[in-house]
Structure formats: structure tokens, C-alpha cells
Design a protein that fits this description.
The chain starts with a helix and ends in a 9-residue tail after the last helix. By secondary structure, it is mainly α. The protein is about 70% helix and about 0% strand. It is built from ten helices and no strands.
Length: about 240
């Protein structure tokens, strides 16, 4: 009985993956707005009623695709960070940013699902929060490590507005760190610029200006590191 259950579970898992792969192909052709369980079932040669036993609705399938995409992107960032020299905080930041861009370029439709226009009528459930948090956490971990190593270049700046201070405190509490509030806000500014640049590139906003965007991207990533206060790589012992 246990062997039979395991075989059924394996078969269900394999078919679930096939359904999601078919859905990703549909995303690349017609976008998230047009995602249809009936069309996915048709591609797989299934009756739609059978597919509904795996995903109860289009929104449930979209949620699964979103979670998978967040997890895949976060895994790429984390792997790039691990591959860099641990004490080279700027190098880790640059590696993480390049990994983000590389994944987005290789998976533009999944990237658009995460950071593009909202899908009309779809509201992401709380089940996406944990996976969605992995990406900013991976980036902020580099900043946290630099701060804890005493490597950040801190600046004398005007106090943050109370609202920003409160928001920065919530972020540091979530990270379990004591990163200075102004560093937190500068870091959020940097990762917002990161995704803004990638979005502009993928959606053709750099055409006839900064296309190809490789040099601009590398330059901007370095300026983001300056903004955060990450030390130059040649300062690493």
C-alpha cells in the first residue's frame, strides 16, 4: 500500500510539473492575463475537469507559477552570493545583481509575472510572501554582513522622515539585524533601481539609447554599491 501511494504521489507530482510547464509556455505566447486552464488542459491532451483536480482555478495555477519563479530567482541570487568571496561585500553585491539580470533575461515572462503589470482580477495570497521575501532578503543579507563586519562606509546625513524611520525599523526587525536606518533606506533605493533597470531593459525602454545595456548596468550596479556604502573590492584583505 505504501509503495502504491508513493507511486501515485510521484505520478501526481510529475503531472503537476507538466501542467506548470505548459502554463509557462502559455505565458510566453499570450501573457498571464490570457492564462487559461482549458488551454493548458488542451495542450496536455487532458479534459479540463481532470486538470481541476490539480489546480482548482486559474488563480491557484498563477500562484504556483509565481512561487516557483520567486524561488528560482532567489536560488540564483543566493548561489551567486555564495560563489563570491565572503568578505568581498561589493563583489557579492555585484554578483547578486548580475544573477538577477541573467535570470530575468533567460525567463522574461516569469520575470514579468513577478515584477511586471498586475494581472487583472488576480490578488496574490499570503502563501506567496515567504517565497517573495527571499529575493530582498538575499540582497539585504549582503548589506547586513557588511555592517556586522564593520565594513560599511557610513555617511553624515540629515535624519530620515519619521515614516521612513518606522519602515526601516520594521525591515531591520524582520532581518534580525541592527543595520542603521539610513543604510536600510539606501539599500531599498538600490534594489528598486536594480529591478527598474532590468524592467526597462526587458521591455525595450533603452532602445536607441542605452541598448545594449551591459556597460550601463555594470556602471549602475557599482554606483548602487557606493550608495549603500559597500567597500571597494580592492580593500578586501
Amino acid at each position: 500500500m505504501n509503495a502504491s501511494r508513493t507511486a501515485r504521489e510521484r505520478a501526481r507530482s510529475e503531472l503537476t510539473q507538466e501542467i506548470k510547464e505548459a502554463a509557462r509556455r502559455q505565458l510566453s505566447v499570450s501573457g498571464a492575463q490570457a492564462l487559461s486552464l482549458r488551454a493548458v488542459a488542451r495542450e496536455l491532451g487532458m479534459v479540463s475537469s481532470a486538470l481541476y483536480r490539480y489546480f482548482a482555478s486559474r488563480d491557484e495555477l498563477l500562484t504556483a507559477l509565481i512561487i516557483d519563479a520567486y524561488e528560482a530567482l532567489a536560488a540564483e541570487i543566493e548561489a551567486a552570493d555564495r560563489a563570491a568571496l565572503s568578505a568581498d561585500f561589493r563583489g557579492r553585491w555585484e554578483a547578486a545583481c548580475r544573477a538577477t539580470r541573467a535570470w530575468a533575461t533567460a525567463h522574461p515572462h516569469e520575470y514579468a509575472l513577478l515584477y511586471g503589470s498586475p494581472v487583472p482580477g488576480y490578488h496574490a495570497p499570503e502563501t506567496t510572501i515567504a517565497s517573495g521575501s527571499r529575493v530582498p532578503i538575499a540582497l539585504m543579507t549582503i548589506v547586513r554582513d557588511a555592517h556586522e563586519a564593520g565594513a560599511l562606509t557610513l555617511r553624515d546625513e540629515e535624519p530620515l522622515p519619521p515614516t521612513l524611520t518606522d519602515q526601516a525599523v520594521r525591515i531591520t526587525e524582520f532581518l534580525g539585524s541592527d543595520i542603521p536606518n539610513d543604510v536600510v533606506i539606501r539599500s531599498v533605493t538600490a534594489w528598486t533601481q536594480l529591478f527598474g533597470m532590468i524592467t526597462f531593459e526587458l521591455f525595450g525602454q533603452y532602445a536607441n539609447s542605452l541598448d545594449p545595456a551591459d556597460t550601463f548596468f555594470d556602471y549602475s550596479v557599482d554606483r548602487m554599491a557606493d550608495l549603500i556604502g559597500l567597500p571597494e573590492t580592492d580593500q578586501v584583505e
